[in-house]
């Protein structure tokens, strides 16, 4: 009996134990299942395109936040960062930017992963093979990138991957500006400034992200994702001079931040003298060492918000009051040209470009080639084009001079042809900013009823801007011994002077490609005919806010502007 009782208790105990274990396992497995959902890993990728920096990069900050694994990537798709059209200098600069990023990530145990191919294919692989489930990128404001980004957004949606784009290449979200302006981009700079005033100041830059604890795995076979060389892409210097330029813009965020620091010191010095924008005085620094921020702003190695607030805060520190908009007006130009291109895929063309006037430009490949190669026989123009090809950068007055010369000033060649040349050589060439400036200078857009059909003289403008001729002598060395009196018009030098200067015109240096006196008269009358048509047709298009804006754009005080425009 006792044995039976013991057996009964044992059986019941076993039964209870069995049910307890079963239900505990069940509970455990459903608990785990819940946990599976809860502890789904965040494997994130930040996709660099513009915005080639770590500081003030909201998309990067979002990607690394609470992530389990993080991979910074760059995709060479044949188009990114303007690589479809650009030449040696800009390729070199781009690879330097990426190298700097790679080195920055290396300090925290990571690397920059480089891929080759179409983003759609690459992301599909990343989702499958690396289990990537979170992508961030900086929003590209230009319409040419919209298709690429929309297809990635769709792919992510289909694949259940989180995909976030952040505005930080411009001070404001272009959509906010357009919405505030009633659905269309503001047509003048003044209107644009009014709109942004009503939006309030732009956001401040973010604090430096802490990458210390971010897990950035690097596999043993990383080599296949390493940054390629110029040789890999078959890119070589197009000109001997590119191998040993006088001024070298070295790419990268590190260099960009040092330049910004130096620039702010310069701003401070000029604020203390009750002036502003040291690089914007009436005597431009054509020969300044590579200090311009534009190539770095173009690739986003330096944040536009950090630049903007750096200047504004410096002003406030010096003057103890809010800065006037004047101190950052150059940055507004950049913003304005970006906004004007929103939704306009033909912004870089004449055909089907609603803001561009159709002017009857002529084709002349020989003249175009001579202009590109710095062989026009106008030393001021040739020096600028040589500087552009060899170093990838020109001061604004230089760009202004050569673009006017090619279009409405002398050669009457379309701004579209000039734009292609700039997109090839300029380090800072931006699809929208560059096209916008070309339309402006050639009077094709941003021109109010052609009130300013100015033809800047390639002789007088040069003499005014390069007063001691140092710039021309440097970039057209064959003229280095030409006396200043003839430096900007060497064909006027008597033969003895040419011989003494070791430069015979027509042999050592070309005769002028055209007579500026004749061509500018012909071109001005053509412009007047366009103006007449324009007034009759009342075509809506962009316009400068007023004449003062036009003078400022040419970096000339009104009186000199008048002289240079009309004294042929
Ligand atoms: C035909 C032509 C094409 C141009 N193409 C470009 C281009 O592709 N990319 C580019 O950044 N600039 C372009 N510019 C504008 C201008 O010449 C350069 O921005 C300027 O020379 C850069 O020098 P900086 O950095 O010392 O400028 P700063 O005078 O110090 O100005 C600070 C920043 O403001 C912006 N900025 C200044 N002027 C302009 C302007 N007119 N339009 C738009 N942004 C401006 C640039 O980002 C610049 O770095 C072009 C001008 C002309 C006439």
UniProtKB/TrEMBL annotation:
The record marks 361, 415, 438 as: Electron transfer via tryptophanyl radical. SUPFAM superfamilies: Cryptochrome/photolyase FAD-binding domain, Cryptochrome/photolyase, N-terminal domain. It comes from Acanthosepion pharaonis (Pharaoh cuttlefish). Residues 42-171 form the Photolyase/cryptochrome alpha/beta domain. Belongs to the DNA photolyase class-1 family. Keywords: Cytoplasm, FAD, Flavoprotein, Nucleotide-binding, Nucleus, Receptor. FAD binds at residues 330-337, 428-430. One of its GO terms (cellular component) is nucleus. Its cofactor is FAD. Its main location: cytoplasm. It holds the Pfam family FAD_binding_7. It is found in: Cytoplasm, Perinuclear region; Nucleus. This is Cryptochrome-1. PANTHER family: CRYPTOCHROME (PTHR11455), CRYPTOCHROME-1 (PTHR11455:SF17). The keyword Manganese does not apply. InterPro entries: Crypto/Photolyase_FAD-like_sf, Crypto/Photolyase_N_sf, Cryptochr/Photolyase_FAD-bd, Cryptochrome/DNA_photolyase_1, DNA_photolyase_N, Rossmann-like_a/b/a_fold.
């Amino acid at each position: 009996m006792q044995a039976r009782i013991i057996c009964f208790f044992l059986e019941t105990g076993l039964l209870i134990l069995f049910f307890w274990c079963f239900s505990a396992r069940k509970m455990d497995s459903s608990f785990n299942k819940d946990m599976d959902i809860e502890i789904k890993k965040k494997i994130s990728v930040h996709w660099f395109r513009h915005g080639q920096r770590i500081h003030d990069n909201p998309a990067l900050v979002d990607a690394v936040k609470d992530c389990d694994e993080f991979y910074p990537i760059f995709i060479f798709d044949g188009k990114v960062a303007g690589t479809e059209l650009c030449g040696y200098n800009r390729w070199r600069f781009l690879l330097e930017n990426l190298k700097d990023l790679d080195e920055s990530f290396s300090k925290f145990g990571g690397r920059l992963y480089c891929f080759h191919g179409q983003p759609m294919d690459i992301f599909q692989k990343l989702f499958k093979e690396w289990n990537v489930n979170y992508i961030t990128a900086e929003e590209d404001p230009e319409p040419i990138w919209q298709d690429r980004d929309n297809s990635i957004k769709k792919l992510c949606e289909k694949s259940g991957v989180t995909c976030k784009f952040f505005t930080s290449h411009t001070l404001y979200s272009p959509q906010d500006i357009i919405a505030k302006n009633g659905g269309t981009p503001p047509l003048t700079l003044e209107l644009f400034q009014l709109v942004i005033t009503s939006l309030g100041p732009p956001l401040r830059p973010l604090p430096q992200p802490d990458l210390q604890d971010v897990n950035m795995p690097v596999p043993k076979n990383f080599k296949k994702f390493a940054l390629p060389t110029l040789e890999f892409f078959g890119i070589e210097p197009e000109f001997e001079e590119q191998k040993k330029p006088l001024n070298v813009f070295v790419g990268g965020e590190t260099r960009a931040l040092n330049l910004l620091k130096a620039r702010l010191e310069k701003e401070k010095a000029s604020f203390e003298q009750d002036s502003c924008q040291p690089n914007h005085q009436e005597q431009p620094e054509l020969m300044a060492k590579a200090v311009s921020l534009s190539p770095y702003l173009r690739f986003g190695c330096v944040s536009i918000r950090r630049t903007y607030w750096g200047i504004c805060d410096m002003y406030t520190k010096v003057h103890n009051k809010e800065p006037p908009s004047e101190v950052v007006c150059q940055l507004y130009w950049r913003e304005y040209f970006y906004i004007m291109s929103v939704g306009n895929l033909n912004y870089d063309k004449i055909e089907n470009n609603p803001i561009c006037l159709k002017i009857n430009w002529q084709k002349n490949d020989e003249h175009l080639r001579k202009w590109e190669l710095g062989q026009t026989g106008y030393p001021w123009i040739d020096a600028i084009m040589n500087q552009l090809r060899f170093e990838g950068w020109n001061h604004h007055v230089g760009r202004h001079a050569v673009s006017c010369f090619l279009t409405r000033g002398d050669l009457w060649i379309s701004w579209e042809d000039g734009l292609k040349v700039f997109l090839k050589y300029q380090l800072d060439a931006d699809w929208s900013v560059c096209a916008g400036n070309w339309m402006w200078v050639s009077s094709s857009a941003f021109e109010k009823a052609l009130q300013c059909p100015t033809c800047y003289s390639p002789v007088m403008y040069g003499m005014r801007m390069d007063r001691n001729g140092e710039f021309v002598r440097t970039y057209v060395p064959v003229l280095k011994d030409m006396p200043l009196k003839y430096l900007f018009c060497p064909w006027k030098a008597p033969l003895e002077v040419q011989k003494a200067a070791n430069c015979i015109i027509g042999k050592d240096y070309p005769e002028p490609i055209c007579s500026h006196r004749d061509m500018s008269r012909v071109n001005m009358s053509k412009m007047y005919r366009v103006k007449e048509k324009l007034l009759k047709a009342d075509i809506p298009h962009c316009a400068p806010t007023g004449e003062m804006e036009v003078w400022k754009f040419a970096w000339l005080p009104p009186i000199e502007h008048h002289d240079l425009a009309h004294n042929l």
